[in-house]
Amino acid sequence: MSLHPTIARVTDRIRKRSHDHRSAYLERMERAASVDGPARGHLTCGNQAHACAAMGIDKEAMAAGRMPNIGIISAYNDILSAHQPFETYPALIREAARKAGATAQMAGGVPAMCDGVTQGQAGMELSLFSRDVIALAAGVSLSHDTFDAALFLGVCDKIVPGLIIAAATFSHIPSIFVPAGPMTSGLQNDEKSKVRNAYANGEIGRDKLMLAEMASYHGPGTCTFYGTANTNQMLMEFMGLHLPGSSFINPSTPLREALTIASVQRVTEITPQGNDYRPIGKILDERAFVNGLVGLMATGGSTNLVLHLPVMARAAGILLDLQDFADISEAVPLMAKVYPNGLADVNHFHAAGGLGYMIGKLLDAGLLHPDARTVAGDGLSFYRQEPKLIDGKIVWQNGATETLNKNILRPTTDPFAKTGGLKQLSGNLGRGVIKISAVSPKRYVIEAPARIFHSQEDVKAAFKRGEFIADTVIVVRFQGPQANGMPELHSLTPTLSILQDRGLRVALVTDGRMSGASGKVPAAIHVSPEAAAGGPLARLRDGDIIRLDAVAGTLTVLTADFDTRFPITTDLTANRYGTGRELFEIFRRNVGPSDLGASVVV
Length: 602
Fold this sequence. Notes:
Blueprint: H1 5-32, H2 45-52, H3 59-64, E1 69-74, H4 89-99, E2 103-109, H5 115-118, H6 127-142, E3 149-153, H7 159-169, E4 175-178, H8 189-200, H9 206-216, H10 228-238, H11 254-269, H12 280-283, H13 286-299, H14 304-315, H15 322-331, H16 346-351, H17 354-364, E5 385-390, E6 393-398, E7 422-427, E8 430-435, E9 445-453, H18 456-464, E10 472-476, H19 481-484, H20 493-501, E11 506-510, E12 523-528, E13 545-549, E14 554-557, H21 585-590
Helix pairs in contact: 1-15, 4-11, 6-7, 7-14, 8-9, 8-20, 10-13
């Protein structure tokens, strides 16, 4: 099958746009990779003695300087269920490295915050910036320059993007991303949503809400809905940075452990001392990022990746634009229905055929670059396969070629929707995006008076006072990266859902973010320029008529005198202090706009 013309056109546009940046990036990579032998060979004896002083039984092999040395970057902590399994990985990796003729060291840990814990709290204002902190921390860890390869242990929302930024920066180092897998299925996501709405509506108490939440988030592993964390895992397979079929294997299973060992074996093979040198900078080209965009659209993935992918790409010399997202979304069908776009969770998705099935069908339809480099080999066809544990060894076999549940997973020829459901919005209110894969088509166009708020708490307070009795476009401004770090506004979801269920036509417009689990209420998010930078949202007033048109891709205010108004300012000092926010003033002052990824470091 030849490459789909839209995929070919967008890829060519990205390649041309990125030419100068990518060429400079590859030149730096070649210079960094020019050292012969193990990476630590250029270090002095004193440098090397420090590096191996505490290595115990591996000290002699490390000092001899002939074996490849693998650096482990881990986002382990106990507060993220998705990352708790990583506690035991370093010992497993070191033992596997010895058997593969290599050494391995824990190079460093990176911070990893749980958005589920900080949703609706002040700590959420550090969430997006944590991505850049993770990149910086991983950079410090790799700066010892003693590693011939790296294994990155991370799963959740900002962690994988931050690790990708660091990995791309150390472009000459072969790298594999090692997942931990999703927790087993608990309370069904639609039941959890009903309980949350009932609590928001005052129908049940906090005790029943807590029981439902504990039944949903009940053990080690990634949360099972298709939010940002699981979108990250999908992305790592579509971009060829996981071993094939490894994303959605549950923790603490023999297959999960065997896949971790296989990652060690493979990363040893792709070092300069191995027989298949694969620096990550060569893998992260325009084809890899286009394949990632295709996966995002085909699965109905998290809108947070609209922020992360441009920054990840720029770290590798690739320049993405929102128009690239929009064009690919128009060409790629929605093949999956996983909560919040459906009732199934990622375990059900995996059982129905999962990523191997999707990648195979998208390759057959010409919607993916088949020749993309991956950690498994040249060509994405490796990712049609799924791992099996046979006689204690990993064997990759052909994956599903037919869906096992058409309510969860469909072929490109019979999709849930003809497009990926992500639309770019532009107009006199700025530039943003909307995810419509879970929105009813009858709500694609909303035209209604605006109600202006400066925090999600103010919206919830107005709801409790019974102030929403007519169609409304709820504007929550001063939520961008300069204002307060661009927190997710996920705690508004029950409130907005209740208003919509009451028969009102409602929409959200914000320069902030929604969760990766955002769902059925139309939401124009990431609106840029943000209000704190004097963007158009800062000129809005209560009662202005706003039209959000997800069909035409427009976001406009229809008030006649809008363009002649001066933007308002607001007191943002409350965002500057408490819960560590004092430490991030330098980020708020220097962050880039959200349509470029809202980054400080790239």
